[in-house]
Specification:
The chain is mostly helical. Helix content is 66%, strand content 4%.
Length: 194
């Protein structure tokens, strides 16, 4: 029996162009590779602070590359995934990073997801990187004030403590990231394979 074209449309099947499908697979592969690369670089820690927070071997660079190449929506999703990967890596390394369940959201998926904001400044990539890291700092800062105030030394406000603590590792991370991003921008790495 021959199928009627109206029967096909009523079942909800649709034809996806092969080119569009190839582009989707290419994008998903790029996201997976960048998150995996960031996760691997996150494991290489130059130093780690007692309550969490580390200077890594440029673990934010792949997410910034993705953000500047593909835009904020894709990079925010990739950053959130990286945040969850970083959480698993930190908890498995023996560092006590979970103080409160809500704190985990601020310090991992939200903080790393905010790196994707660099995609809004694709025409000014270094400013985008700076904005992404500043947004990540803000997320860690709020977490520090809300959940780590008891760690502040006597006479130091939770705001000062959180700013100094989180700024100490994020400024070093920013320096490493900016140096590598300048090199990648000069090599035109943002235009590769688009």
């Amino acid at each position: 029996m021959k199928k009627n074209s109206s029967d096909e449309s009523s079942t909800g099947s649709r034809v996806v162009s092969p080119l569009r499908e190839i582009q989707r697979v290419k994008l998903l592969t790029e996201i997976a590779v960048m998150v995996a690369l960031s996760g691997a670089l996150y494991l290489v820690k130059i130093f780690t602070l007692p309550q969490g927070g580390s200077v890594t071997l440029a673990s934010m660079v792949p997410i910034f590359l993705l953000s500047l190449r593909r835009g904020p929506k894709i990079a925010i999703v990739a950053g959130v995934i990286l945040g969850l990967v970083a959480l698993v890596e930190d908890t498995s390394s023996g560092i006590e990073v979970i103080v409160y369940p809500a704190q985990v959201i601020f310090d991992y998926p939200l903080a790393f997801g905010l790196l994707g904001l660099a995609g809004f400044l694709r025409k000014i990539p270094l400013l985008g990187v700076t904005v992404g890291i500043a947004a990540r700092f803000c997320s860690h800062f709020v977490s520090g004030v809300l959940f780590f105030a008891s760690y502040a030394p006597t006479g130091v406000s939770p705001y000062e403590y959180s700013a100094i603590y989180n700024g100490s590792f994020l400024l070093a991370e920013m320096a490493i990231t900016v140096i590598i991003m300048v090199g990648l921008i000069r090599l035109k790495a943002l235009q590769l394979y688009l």
